[in-house]
TrEMBL record:
Keywords for this protein: Leucine-rich repeat, Repeat
Name of the protein in question: Leucine rich repeat-containing protein
Keyword Repeat: yes
Cited Pfam families: LRR_8
Native source species: Actinoplanes campanulatus
Stored InterPro entries: Leu-rich_rpt (IPR001611), Leu-rich_rpt_typical-subtyp (IPR003591), LRR_dom_sf (IPR032675), LRR_domain-containing (IPR050216)
PROSITE patterns (alphabetical): LRR
Phylogenetic placement of the source organism: Bacteria, Bacillati, Actinomycetota, Actinomycetes, Micromonosporales
Length: 771
């Protein structure tokens, strides 16, 4: 009856107005708009309260151009929900709406404001309408009414469309009991005026314009130019700063040095390219400047080291400057100086000789007793003070000027890593005894190192330090070192073992960005953990098993805080077979192995009994093991973009699946294998809610699909289906059918079936003309 205006008017003439109201659907809005206002309102008046709210949903969720016509009719009714009157006001100032019609606004306001006490958001919306109309005094009155009725005043405070109201007398007073607003964008800040802006979030390199806002206390900004940094350094009240740097070239060391020394600045976070300088590091830097009263050149160098500015400051620094920087109170500065010194300092020719003495200056990672024993093996000694036999000095961190004294005295300086390399060449150190003993010890230590009991971990560390470290335990030691929940002695012991036994490339990688990465922090996502493990392995290829390290990190993290998700995706880690230690994560809830080159799953995949989600997209699987059906809790299975020539029969033994994807990606090159037929077994997947078969070469659907009572979404995009089966209209819960790119015939049969599906409330997406 909603086919066209004539049909609707015939229904009105014959008294079927109630039937018209009941049958009104979203797709009938075009016909609705073509009716006269009196006709539309007659139909609305005959409808139920729920039907009127449904029409309001069409207005709120439909096209902007349709909303005024729908709401013009709705606001004439006295018994709508307050939320609906509020939605009507919101459409008046929608960003894509036409300029406000004052008469329409008057009608909407008259209908909505009596309901403000029951739904205070109405006063916020009314304030926006009056602002658009230029009546600022009424804006203040509406905000005051919202405040009296316990409205969410902070939402009005943070509404940037009302930013120009802040200079108005009386407006700011309404928010005096709240924290100052966070202005988002320079346009809003300028509209509010410098006096009102104390907190600002801005992008696009605001540059020198920031200097206008002399009251700024909190700034979150991204920038790519020195002028923005310089303007921030000139803000006298700046107390908190979060800066996201998008510089294409080097950072300006001098301007950054000015900025970190702004007297009022208490919190400063600086992020660039995924690497962050944290507030604690900057506070430590400022404290170090003040405590040691460092001269300007040294301050510039320390800032350049901490921020990795790359503007030539560190390259121009001499060896003495960098050795002095190893005395800094900021670990990141010391580590950066050490990395540069590794290329500047060289061991004396000839290495260590019998009778040579070695003196330490500062803190080192190695156990001094172990180091003394290793020196004794080549006839050298570890000296407390320099003497005639002193061959070289080892510059450690926080040396309190002693390394500089040795340098000034002409004693050759080297780093701890360079000393270990000398010792390794002179007397290679075996990591374990006999092979059998080493394997047995490694197994025992592995169990202890992965124990949840800190006492077991401490025992393992002590045993390894006393009896040597068997091979194959570097990943376990890294996890112990990074676990911030463990005590310092345990973590320090693990760090010393890594310093003594890890290959040089791994030691350098651990001392770099990975040292500042806390994968156990509350905000660390599975992606962050995967990224940290991958970045570490990339810096020292061949030294660690990154998948094992990632597995150990996930197993060690608190499941109550982080859940149990192992995320291996993006092609960063590749393996044809699932490593056996992954199956040890028996309480894993979500396993994602995407684009890893996986060709098969192990038969005992069922050991992962806690899995509820398994994502195996973009691999090279051709079959599935029978053991996958033992995953009783599995509800979501993604097998998209694999190489299945037929649907694995084991899937139909997994009747508890809720989501299943067998899709292919249409943006990939021609796929080597497509599904061309489906087995007639889908009636066994009675709990399936979403099924994705997109871009497979399917010409027909099996009749068993009609017996899937819970299917809500079916994706058939890009398939070779030419005719839609009639039984689609019989599926009781189907709500979404995706058909774009399918090879459907553009005939009356398909168009009629699509129309009937839409009449049942199914959202059908198709590129058929007139469908």
């Amino acid at each position: 009856m909603w086919h066209d205006v004539a049909a609707v008017r015939e229904c009105l003439r014959t008294g079927r107005v109630a039937a018209l109201a009941r049958s009104l659907k979203r797709e009938n809005v075009a016909t609705w708009r073509a009716l006269e206002p009196v006709e539309r309102r007659e139909i609305l008046a005959a409808g139920s309260a729920s039907k009127r709210e449904e029409v309001a949903g069409f207005a709120a969720g439909g096209r902007v151009a349709e909303a005024p016509v729908l709401f013009d009719d709705l606001v004439t009714l006295p018994d709508l929900r307050p939320k609906t009157y509020c939605a009507a006001l919101e459409t008046l100032y929608h960003e894509y709406a036409d300029p406000i019609d004052p008469e329409r606004a008057r009608i909407y306001l008259a209908a909505a404001l009596p309901h403000g006490a029951a739904y205070p958001k109405i006063f916020h919306c009314a304030a926006r309408v009056y602002f658009e109309l230029g009546d600022r005094d009424r804006v203040v009155r509406m905000v005051a009414a919202g405040k009296r009725n316990d409205g969410s005043l902070w939402l009005i405070r943070d509404d940037m469309a009302l930013a120009p109201m802040w200079p108005h007398p009386g407006y700011a007073e309404l928010f005096a009991h709240l924290d100052p607003p966070l202005f988002r964008g320079m346009e809003a800040a300028r509209a509010a005026g410098p006096a009102a802006v104390r907190r600002l979030r801005a992008g696009g390199s605001p540059g020198g314009r920031l200097r206008e806002f002399v009251n700024l206390e909190w700034v979150d900004v991204w920038g790519d130019d020195e002028e923005t940094l310089a303007a921030l350094a000139d803000l006298p009240r700046l107390a908190r700063l979060e800066f996201s740097a998008h510089f294409r070239g080097p950072l300006p060391t001098g301007t950054l040095t000015r900025l970190v020394q702004v007297p009022a600045l208490e919190e400063f976070t600086f992020e660039r390219g995924g690497e962050a300088v944290r507030p604690g590091q900057i506070r430590a830097l400022r404290t170090d400047f003040a405590r040691r009263d460092l001269p300007v050149p040294e301050r510039l160098l320390h800032v350049a080291l901490l921020f990795a500015t790359g503007d030539g400051t560190t390259e121009q620094a001499g060896v003495r400057d960098l050795v002095a920087a190893m005395d800094s109170g900021v670990p990141a500065v010391r580590q950066a100086a050490k990395r540069l010194l590794a290329d500047r300092l060289t061991a004396p020719e000839g290495g260590l000789r019998p009778g040579d003495g070695v003196v330490l200056a500062g803190k080192i990672d190695s156990d001094q007793a172990v180091l003394a024993d290793r020196l004794a093996e080549v006839g050298a000694t570890l000296q407390r003070r320099p003497g005639p036999a002193t061959r070289l000095a080892v510059a450690g961190e926080q040396h309190k000027g002693r390394a500089l004294a040795h340098l000034d005295a002409g004693v050759p300086l080297i780093l701890e890593s360079q000393l270990r390399d000398l010792l390794d060449r002179a007397a290679p150190q075996p990591l374990s005894g006999a092979a059998g003993d080493g394997e047995e010890l490694a197994g025992r230590l592995r169990v202890l190192l992965t124990s949840p009991d800190e006492a077991d971990i401490k025992l393992a560390v002590d045993l390894a330090r006393q009896g040597g470290l068997p091979p194959g335990l570097l990943e376990e030691l890294i996890v112990v070192w990074k676990d911030t929940r463990l005590g310092r002695p345990v973590r320090g012991g693990a760090q010393k073992l890594l310093a003594e036994h890890a290959p040089a490339a791994l030691r350098d990688a651990l001392a770099g960005a990975f040292a500042r990465t806390n994968v156990f922090r509350d905000s660390a996502l599975p992606w962050d953990v995967m990224s940290a493990a991958h970045d570490l392995a990339e810096l020292c290829p061949g030294t660690i098993d990154e998948v094992r390290l990632l597995t150990l990190l996930i197993a060690r993290r608190d499941p109550d805080r982080f859940g149990r998700m192992l995320d291996i995706c993006g092609g960063w880690m590749t393996f044809t077979h699932l490593p056996p230690y992954v199956l040890e994560l028996t309480d894993l809830g979500h396993l994602r192995i995407e684009q890893a080159g996986l060709v098969e799953l192990p038969d005992d995949i069922g050991r992962l009994a806690g899995l509820h989600t398994l994502d195996l997209g973009r691999n090279q699987l051709t079959s599935l093991p029978a053991g996958i059906s033992e995953l009783r809790d599995l509800r979501n299975l993604d097998l998209s973009n694999n190489h299945f020539a037929q649907v694995p029969s084991v899937l139909f033994a997994m009747g508890d699946l809720v989501r299943l994807s067998l899709a292919l990606s249409n943006w990939k090159p021609p796929w080597p294998v497509h599904l061309t037929t489906l087995p007639d077994l889908f009636d066994r997947l009675t709990r399936l809610v979403h099924l994705d078969l997109s871009h497979q070469h399917l010409a027909a659907l099996p009749n068993s699909m009609r017996a899937m009572p819970n299917l809500v979404g079916l994706n058939l995009r890009g398939t070779r289906l030419r005719e839609l089966p009639e039984w689609l209209t019989e599926m009781p819960k189907l709500r979404q059918l995706l058909l774009e790119g399918a090879s459907l015939d553009n005939d009356a049969v398909n168009r009629d079936l699509i129309a009937r599906l839409r009449g049942r409330g199914v959202a059908v997406w198709t590129d058929l003309a007139d469908a």
